[in-house]
């Protein structure tokens, strides 16, 4: 347990699952004067090991025992503290300020996509399509506009690989087979620099 050994510790072993009908059994032993303990004749399966000792914080861990395996482990317990305040200071993890994710299951349920996974992004907040007005008619192109920025100011990628053109000519369908997409991550702004020099937004298809 610790380097010096913790005598009189109680070790509880719970069999969580196994192919044998005797599952969900609990056994326990007490550690010797050197903090050593031993279980014999265990069934293969997944176990929860819990160690309880006076003046030490309780300890629990999951262990898996394979058929015919001899498993040796070393556990180190922490002394229980009283009236002690510990302050840990560290940098906050770098996270995207805003991210919207669509799974493959969600994409299939969004109406109006016509089987094209990329069109599901058009329903996300801050997303629009390029419109051309002329000759008394208004037509919508295939370029995606994120928060009012131009199409060239946003980044579009597949598994973090840059995709310069999302749609075939005339914008009828996207160039990526929807069956290859497991998830789409959409960043409308304040995204990581790993996506390049984009200033608008990011759409990343993940396979």
Give a brief outline of the structure:
With 207 residues, this protein is mainly beta. Helix content is 3%, strand content 32%. It has one helix at 104-109; strands at 10-17, 26-30, 45-52, 59-65, 100-103, 127-134, 137-146, 155-158, 161-162, 183-187, 202-206.
Structure description:
The chain is mostly beta strands and 207 residues long. The protein has two domains: 1-82, Immunoglobulin-like, CATH 2.60.40.1120; 100-206, Ferric Hydroxamate Uptake Protein, Chain A, domain 1 (Beta Complex). It is 3% helix and 32% strand. It has one helix at residues 104-109; strands at 10-17, 26-30, 45-52, 59-65, 100-103, 127-134, 137-146, 155-158, 161-162, 183-187, 202-206. The strands form three sheets. The protein has a five-stranded mixed sheet. The chain has a four-stranded antiparallel sheet with strand order 2-1-3-4, with no helix packed on it. It is elongated. It starts with 9 loop residues before the first strand and ends with a strand.
